[in-house]
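Quick one:
INPUT:
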């Protein structure tokens, strides 16, 4: 499997969606997330601030202020992800990699989620493997988290057109389930 060509194919499919279609599909994904017991029972949720190619979950966050929301950021040295609790938009800044992220000086780091919502370039609906952007940040973060005795639920989040066959490698961390605009894809 050539991961570069699969990434190109997934990005081309995402690019074919209009802004309105992405908004509609993102709303469908958010509604499905809300219907899941793991979401309803979660107190601390690790999520992401959407790039243009990712489902936007901002409305979900706004509808559930009772939850503690922590968002990912890549450390300055690029070595790993950390998640920081964000209570308002004032806690966000433009990061070193050119996208919004939590300001670590204003947002406390969190380490124990109940639920993790993970974006990706592509996901395999059968084995729940994830294809990321190629830096391995999520795999390095999720590996120890999923190995812990009380590990959180991890949902892969994507548009349905991002579902592709993938051959997982030994370091890849499978999602517990996939949620797309077509509903629940697998793992439940």
């Amino acid at each position: 499997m050539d991961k570069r060509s699969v990434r190109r194919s997934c990005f081309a499919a995402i690019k074919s969606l209009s802004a309105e279609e992405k908004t509609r599909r993102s709303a469908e994904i958010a509604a499905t997330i809300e219907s899941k017991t793991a979401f309803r029972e979660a107190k601390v949720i690790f999520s992401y601030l959407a790039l243009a190619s990712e489902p936007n979950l901002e409305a979900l966050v706004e509808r559930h202020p009772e939850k503690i929301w922590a968002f990912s950021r890549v450390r300055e040295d690029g070595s790993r992800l950390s998640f920081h609790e964000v209570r308002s938009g004032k806690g966000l800044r433009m990061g070193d990699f050119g996208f919004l992220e939590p300001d670590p000086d204003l947002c406390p780091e969190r380490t124990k989620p109940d639920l993790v919502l993970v974006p990706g370039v592509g996901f395999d609906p059968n084995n729940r493997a994830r294809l990321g952007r190629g830096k391995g940040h999520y795999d390095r973060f999720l590996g120890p988290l999923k190995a812990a005795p009380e590990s959180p639920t991890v949902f892969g989040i994507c548009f349905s057109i991002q579902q592709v066959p993938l051959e997982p490698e030994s370091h890849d961390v499978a999602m517990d389930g996939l949620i797309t605009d077509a509903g629940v894809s697998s793992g439940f």
